[in-house]
Amino acid sequence: MNEPTFHHALKILEEVCTGCVHCTVVCPTEALRVRNGKAILNENRCIDCGECMNVCPVNAIIVEQNDIAEIFPYKARVALVSSIFIGQFPRHYQTRKIYSGMLEQGFTHVHESEHGAGILIEQINQYIAQNSQNKPIISSFCPAIVRLIQVRFPSLVENIMLLKAPLDLAALAFKKELIEKGYKEEEIGIFYVTPCAAKIAAIKSPVGEEKSVINGVVNMNELYNKVYSTLKKEQYSSCIIPEKEQLKSEEMGWSLTGGEAAYIQGRCLSIDGLNNVIEFLEGIENGKITNFDFIEVRACDQSCAGGILTVANRFLTRERLDERIAKYHHDKSEGKIFDNKTIENHGRYIRDHISINSIEPRSMLKLDDNMEAALKKMSRIKKILSYLPGIDCAACGSPTCRTLAEDVVQGTAHTSDCIFIQTSLNVPPNEEIRAETIWGKDRFRKLL
Amino acid sequence: MKMEYSIEGGDFTKAGLASSAVKKVLKQLNIDPAQIKRIAVAMYEAEVNIVAHAYSGIMKVEIDAKKVYMRFVDKGPGIENIDKAMEEGYSTASEAVRQMGFGAGMGLPNIKKNVDEMKISSEINKGTTLELTTFLN
Predict the structure, then answer these.
(1) pLDDT of A263-290, one tens digit each?
(2) Cα→Cα distances A364→A68, A95, A153, B113, Å
(3) A377, closest residue in chain B (CA to CA)
(4) Which residue among A158, A285, A363 sits closest to B40, beta carbon to beta carbon?
(5) Which candidate in A108, A307, A368, B111 could, as Cys together with A195 as Cys, close a disulfide (CB 3.0–4.6 Å)?
(6) Cα(B99)–Cα(B49) distance, integer angstroms
C-alpha cells in the first residue's frame, strides 16, 4: 500500500470493532474494508466525512483529538469556536454565559470562527468574476468536500475556489492582533473547537497551504460537556464578554446551509448532505448541470449543524442561530451593537493572505499508474464481476461486488471470499478457514 | 477494452447513466482528469441526443492505451441537414423536449469541440451514426 499522503482524523478502535461492514457500505470513497474481522481504513482515500462513524453500531470509530490540557503551555490561549457551538445550548443560555463557560476551561480569549466571512464575501464575488472560465466555482469551505473532489471528481479540482475559509482568516487576524499587543508568536496557541473530523484533518495537513496557522483542535462534544456542566452549576466567574454580538448577521449563519450562497452574486445553489453533493457533482462533471456561477457544497446534512461532533439536534441548532440573526437585526436598529474590530483593523492583511495554492487532483480510483496494466486489470474485473451475484451484500468485507472484483485484481482479496461463490463451489467444510480471514477467528467465538 | 450500452429513446430519467459508467472506467484507467471531463461532456451530449431524437440506440466504447473511441448508432428519424445541425443554436427538438431543458441546439457543436475526431452519417427515417475519437497523450 502507498504511504499515506494526508492526515486523517477518524480512527478505528480495533478492540471494539466487530467487522460488521456497516461502515464499508456507506463510505463515499470506498475507503473501508473488513479483513480479519476488523475494519481497515485506506488513509489515502478517506475524506474524513464521518459517515462511517455515524453508522457504526458499536462506536468503534472515533475522532482523534488534542487533550484540552495542551492549551496550557501557551500564554495566550485562543478558542476559535464555530457559531454552531452557541447553537448547541438550550435557548435560555446567553451567548456571553457560554463564552464565560469557555473561559472557565482555561482559554484566555474566545472568538467565533466565522469572523472574516464579511471580507470573504467581497473576495468571493471578485474571484468569481475573475475566474469565469472555471464556472461553477465550488466553495472551499467544507474540507470533506474539497477532499471528495480531489479523490472522486479530479476533473473538478480546478473549479474549487482558491480562497481560505473564515476560520483561517479569523485565526490570522487574531494572531496578528495578539502579536501587536506584545505576545510572541510562540506564546500564542489558537485552538479550533471543531464540529467535525474533516476540519481536524484540514488543520493537521492543509490542502493548498504549507502549514495551518491553527495550533490544535478541541472536539466540540468534549468542550460541550465541560461548558454545559459549568453552566448548570453556575460556576462562571466572569460573565462579561462578549458584551454584545461580535459577528455580523451574515457571519452568524455562514456555517449553516445557505450561509454562503445567500451573499454571492449570480446564480448560486446550496447543497448539503454527501449523497446530494455527489449526485450534483456528477451532473456538473457530465456537463448536465451548467450555467451556475457558484455552488456552496457541504458534506453534512444542515452543514456544520449536522457535524459528527455536535451534540444538539441539527434543526434546533439552526433554529437557535436563526433566532440570533433576527435578534441582531433588532439590536442593530437600536444602535447597540458592539463590533469586534479586529477583522476590520486587519482587513488589508487578511486580503493579502486570503488565497490558497492550487489544489492537486489525487484520484484514488485508478487501478494502475500504467494504462496498459490498468486496462488488463479492468478486463479481469469485468470477467470476475460476471461470476459475482451483484447484490452488494458486503459479506466478503468489500462494500460491493465491484469493489471485491477490484480488490481481487489488486491482490488484496480472493474471489472465493464471496459467500455465494463458496456455496456454488460446494466448498469442503474446512474451507470455513477462508471465511475466518474476513470475519476473524474470534468473531465465531463471540457468537457462540 | 470494450463496453456496450443500450439507450432508450424518450427516457430522460435514464439519460446519462451509460456516460457515468464509462466515466468511472476512465477514472480507473488513470486518464488525465481534464481529458476525462471533455470526453464525459461529449459522451453525455451524444447520449442525450439519442434520448431526445431517436427511438433507440446503442453506445459502444472502445478504449486502448492510445485512444477512446465512441460509436453511437441509433434508430430514428435521421438528420435531414447535417451541416445545419452542426450550427450552434439550430435544433429540431420538440417543444416538450425543450421544456425539459434539452434541445438548445448546442449538442453536436459541443460534442465536436470536446473530441479530436467526429464523424457523423445519417439516413432519413433510418437513423444516425456518430463516431467520436479522443486521442490519449
Answers:
(1) 999 999 999 999 999 999 999 988 888 8
(2) 35, 43, 10, 28
(3) B29
(4) A285
(5) A307
(6) 15
